[in-house]
Amino acid sequence: MNNVASILILAFLAISFIQSGYDKLFYWKDNLEWLKEHFSKTPLKNHVGLALLHILVLELISGILCVVGCIELVINNGRLFGFYGAVFSCITLIMLLFGQRLAKDYDGARTIVIYFIPAVMAVYWLN
């Protein structure tokens, strides 16, 4: 296997985003309440529900593309779906980072950077 590192990073991203999307989908009300408080002093305070929906959709798209990318790499060394999964992961993480910085949650923003590094590595390797 020539793509072990790419497969491992795509699996990491897939698990991270699918689990996060699952959590948002099945615990919507709890997430929404917490986020409304989290963003209560930001310009997003009246748009938290819509922002949460956008993040949910992007996380699910990212996770699904990463799963398909793993399968594609294993079956025929194809990189297209993995590449798009990594790109969508980066876009999603940038949006999450923006929200954390806007809310002045610098510890949360720092955590997102930890996820962003392997996502960018995947974009580079799969390009």
Automatic annotation (TrEMBL):
Entry annotated with the keyword Transmembrane helix: yes
Spans through the membrane: 51-74, 81-102, 108-126
Transmembrane among keywords: yes
Record keywords: Membrane, Transmembrane, Transmembrane helix
Domain of life of the native organism: Bacteria
Name of the molecule in the record: DoxX family membrane protein
Organism: Flavobacterium muglaense
